[in-house]
Amino acid sequence: MPIASAYRTLLALGALCLAALLMLGGCADTRGGSIPYGVAKFNAPDPIAAIAAENAYRTGPGDTLAVAVMRVPDLSGDAVIDPSGDITMPLIGKVPAIGKTTDQIASEISGRLSAKYLQNPEVRVALKSSSSQRITVDGSVNGPGIYSIAGSTTLLQAIALAKGTTSDANSRKVAVFRTIAGQRQAAAFDLTDIRRGKAADPEIFGNDIIVVDGSASKAALKNVLQTIPLISIFRPF
Fold first, then answer.
1. Which intervals hold domain Soluble ligand binding (predicted)?
2. Given the DSSP bridges, would you call strands 133-139 and 209-214 parallel, antiparallel or unpaired?
């Protein structure tokens, strides 16, 4: 075969390979799946108090606790966890509270009160508000894991916490799972459109689970769908 003819053949093959790669890339970077897009009203999740006991919330700095010592109103009231991780109580002073469940904090307060001041005190502690809620980011991100958020957080910010999307991520298919009105629901978002300003950047709440599509996320998404009792897929209005 003449050199010129062979060169043209190689160019043609190269062009075909490039076209095939572009076609594959386009197919991998598209919307789709059973979780709906364009949800007009993806509501805020249920209050923290509704979280199941097996997933008991562990407190963080800035959380506000409602402490009730039964039949002793002077020892009851709200307490904010300070930056050092303590709350301050009448009579007993500082009580370690960071990284604990409300039941553990109640037990600690009860033990300290019974040691010196009260006989068999009944103490109840509830989470009134939280400034350090947790979200899960999984799938095709560089740093999948559980992250703390404080205050208002958007989907783009949540992805940034997980060190951004991987090279094989499909940013057009991002699922958010959330408990609303006692039901586990889901909505899909197009991260590419959000980045380009073509779509709103949705708010993310504590206990949300975010899964970014891509070759690395298939097992993660399957695991989420299998382990979470998804009662209803959120439908657009």
1. 135-182
2. parallel
